[in-house]
Specification:
By secondary structure, this protein is an alpha+beta fold. It is built from six helices and nine strands. The protein has one domain: Gcn5-related N-acetyltransferase (GNAT) (Aminopeptidase), CATH 3.40.630.30.
Length: 183
């Protein structure tokens, strides 16, 4: 398995395929509870725009994307209206005495591991990839996880994320979480 940055159209297509297979629209309620789920669908154009700003981290086996963790810089905040609530919350939060909006952070926009590779360490390796490629430029990585996705919440906590805020928007109850690379 190779953990690397997404570089080709085939990489982005592999992300979109895995996203389609694991979106909540295509899973049963029991699958969502036990396996986790994805909330947001990205267009090919948006995924490519995000990747131009900051390369997505992918796990590849035999040229097939088997996991990904997307990157989104704050300047793209208006490109996904479903994330407006999260960014509004971030604008008002502080971490260790400093306003988050003034700190060096980016958003991990979505993480997914192919069901056949779950439990094999891919999730951890994807985040290790984030740290390897971006810890020199950023202090924090931030994301949000649905309260209804306990598998993802546990995995993020094991990685080192801490909850900054719990909130409800029009779509769900969320945990806004941060991984501080400076501690």
């Amino acid at each position: 398995m190779q953990i690397r940055q997404a570089c080709t159209r085939e990489d982005l297509d592999g992300i979109l395929q895995l996203q389609q297979e694991n979106h909540k629209d295509h899973l049963s309620p029991s699958e969502m509870t036990t396996e986790g789920f994805l909330t947001v669908k990205h267009t090919p154009e948006l995924l490519e725009e995000m990747n131009r700003e900051l390369k997505h981290i992918i796990a590849v086996v035999n040229k097939k994307v088997v996991g990904y963790a997307l990157c989104m810089t704050p300047n793209l905040r208006n490109r996904l209206p479903v994330l407006e609530s999260m960014f509004e919350k971030l604008d008002g939060l502080s971490f260790e005495g400093s306003a988050l909006k003034d700190s060096a952070y980016y958003i991990m926009g979505q993480i997914c591991v192919d069901k056949y590779y779950r439990g094999t360490g891919v999730f951890t390796k994807l985040y290790e990839g984030h740290r390897k490629f971006y810890s020199g430029r950023y202090d924090h990585i931030i994301t949000e996880v649905s309260e209804g996705n306990p598998r993802s919440l546990r995995a993020h906590e094991k990685t080192g994320f801490q909850t900054l805020l719990r909130y409800r928007d029009t779509t769900d109850n969320w945990h806004l979480i941060l991984w501080n690379w400076n501690s």
